[in-house]
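[#protein-structures] MJ: dropping Acyl-CoA reductase here for a structure pass
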Amino acid sequence: MNALDRPAHYLDGGWTPPARGEYFDVVSPSTEEVVGRAPAASDVDIDRAVAAARTAFDDGPWPRLTPAERADLLARAATLLRKRTDEIAGITIDEMGCALSSAPQGQTGMVAPLFDYYAELVRSAPLERSVAVGERLGLVTHEPVGVVAAITPWNAPVTLAAWKVAPALAAGCAVVLKPPPEAPLSTFVLAEALHEAGLPPGVLNVLPGDRAAGEHLVTHPGTDKVAFTGSTAAGKRIMALCGAQVKRVSLELGGKSAAVVLDDADLGAVVPRVIGGAMHLSGQVCGAHTRLLVPRSRYAEAVDTAAATAATIVVGDPHDPATIVGPLVAARQRDRVEGFVRQAVADGARIAAGGVRPAHLPRGWYVAPTVLADVDNSAPVARAEIFGPVICVIAHDGDDDAVRIANDSPYGLSGGVWSGDPRRGLRVARRLRTGSVAINGYFPPFPHVPFGGFKESGLGRELGPEGLFNFLEPRSIGLPPDAE
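AK: finished. structure tokens for Acyl-CoA reductase:
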């Protein structure tokens, strides 16, 4: 099967053409040419997939296997996925413009390891415990939540699908996965690997679709939980829809994370690292540190260093190993980024670097790495998730002020603290209202620890043991004395 031409959904253990015969053209962000095709899910396709998942969960073997048996299959899938990492990376370069240099980290690096991680975790996770209080006995069990509607974004399609599929399957759930129309192709490799590993029919169904398909899936009475990664606006809509049904929901949403540079940090070394990190996947990363907070006394130096760094970043064809920043995923995304930059200038910001379309790239949806100076933290460019290669440099007046600015955001997903004294860095990190913090560039050891956000950055956690229990319902059973 041609990896860039997918004529059928993966549904109930096989390949099923779309019920209404509709397809998406997949357009390369670097060439603006059609590079592939994917089936478009209609409400009929969604209904079929949910019915298959419902049958697989209610009557099939998967939820009734032991955790160890499910773990064996996940481990086989990990082995198969590891053999296909280059293929996954190649598809994402074509469908969403990920630079080849970023693919190992952003597109494939955590996929197979995540399945290995949940395979090992579910073998030993405390899924049952006994409780004795006087003469009263109880048994607490953790049961799979049921049929999961998983909706994933285009910036890391297979990685973020794995964040949901691996723990959901480990828990014993069935999944209907809706990849995005912008980058629907690479996710089918995940389905193929799990199919080859022996996953029973209906336990995983993969149907690319648009917003209407996603809403039909979210509101479908046959789904028990929604797991979503995407924009905060879409997350709010999904949360409202789930609330009407009291349906379980987990949301991994937007961010506007701050990199807090303290006055004892090596500014010349730190600023280039922050700029480089913010440009990963062309800035299309929810956890990117896109507000650079630096001591006011060294503000000019920080801006100059940031601008000089941005000017050296190679922008170009994502297939070229030298490229660091590729295109944005769509013309509308480039227009959105450019609109924020224009608004920032109108609000008094200064473009220290970038802010234009690269002259040597007449085709493709490119924006040059952009550094904005003289930004007030109340400005829209400092509060909204831009999702592009744009970073704001903001001055602070000491640790307390830096914490105040960092926390003055509707988001709370990620963040960083840079200090010559790691203990001081930890003290500041503890004060940040955000789901994860890196001190001096040391990020938490994902996937062994949870990822998620405070405030409008989401609800619930993925990865770590918390990611497994995200797909489990606790149940308490009272036992008579002679039950065990």
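MJ: nice. Residues 12 and 202 are 4 Å apart (CA to CA).
AK: one more thing. The longest helix spans residues 43-58.
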